[in-house]
From TrEMBL:
Residue ranges of every copy of the Ysc84 actin-binding domain listed in the record: 99-220
Pfam families: Ysc84 (PF04366)
GO molecular function, one term: phosphatidylinositol binding
Name of the featured protein: Ysc84 actin-binding domain-containing protein
PANTHER family, A to Z: SH3 DOMAIN-CONTAINING YSC84-LIKE PROTEIN 1, SH3YL1 PROTEIN
Organism: marine metagenome
Length: 228
């Protein structure tokens, strides 16, 4: 289990700057594909009102789960936050996430993960150097389906909703204890400077967003426009 996670980390450290940037661009492309597939899934899509009201979105297109009895998770992904004035998603920051799970389990599995940040407290937690789901912010399995939004009480919404996809099916999942951190190395490889998540999401320090980042923002805003 530890060898699998360690191997992933070591491979990322061995990449050249050009290779690392290409990998980051692929992460953006894969993340957008995940959202596209979610929003075009008739029976398993995220309710449109939830994603339109989300203050930020986190996408991990390849979360690796592996283990026996005690399992480990590791994934690399991105986050984007809506601007207060326009409601549009801005430049992405790169993230890593990991966690442990206990219980009968065997083998390895690749999972796509999406997190919707719904509240100001959840957003403030995201801007920390390290966010622990369930401790810094409440996380719960998100409702799915076109008609699920009708059953959601606005006053009862969670801080962060989680969704995962394995073998082509989307479903809400619980990820309490998962730790999410800024991937400063990936941000450096992509932007040319060491940025923390809040530098990009709040402080607007990522002035020059590469073309792939612009395409990601345009695609995300098309698929998940702000609430009108």
């Amino acid at each position: 289990m530890r060898k699998i996670v360690l191997t992933i980390i070591l491979l990322s450290l061995c990449a050249t700057p050009a290779q690392a940037k290409e990998e980051n661009e692929q992460t953006l492309k894969d993340s957008l594909s995940v959202i596209h597939e979610i929003m075009n899934s008739p029976d398993h899509q995220i309710p449109s009102n939830l994603i339109s009201e989300a203050k930020a979105i986190l996408i991990f297109p390849t979360l690796v789960k592996a283990g026996f009895v005690v399992g480990a998770r590791y994934g690399e992904g991105v986050a984007s936050m809506r601007a207060r004035k326009t409601g549009k998603f801005g430049p992405p920051t790169f993230l890593t996430q990991g966690g442990l799970s206990i219980g009968f389990q065997i083998g390895a599995e690749a999972v796509d993960l999406v997190l919707l940040v719904m509240t100001q407290r959840g957003l403030e937690s995201l801007l920390k150097d390290e966010l622990t789901l369930g401790a810094d912010a409440a996380v719960s399995a998100g409702p799915v389906g076109r008609h699920a939004e009708a059953a959601i009480d606005v006053g009862m919404r969670g801080e962060i909703y989680s969704y995962s996809r394995s073998k082509g099916a989307f479903a809400g999942v619980s990820l309490k204890g998962t730790v999410i951190s800024t991937d400063e190395k990936a941000n450096f490889d992509y932007y040319g400077r060491f940025f923390k998540a809040k530098d990009i999401l709040i402080r607007g320090k990522a002035k020059k967003v590469p073309a792939s980042g612009q395409r990601f923002m345009e695609g995300l805003n098309f698929l998940a426009p702000p609430k009108r």
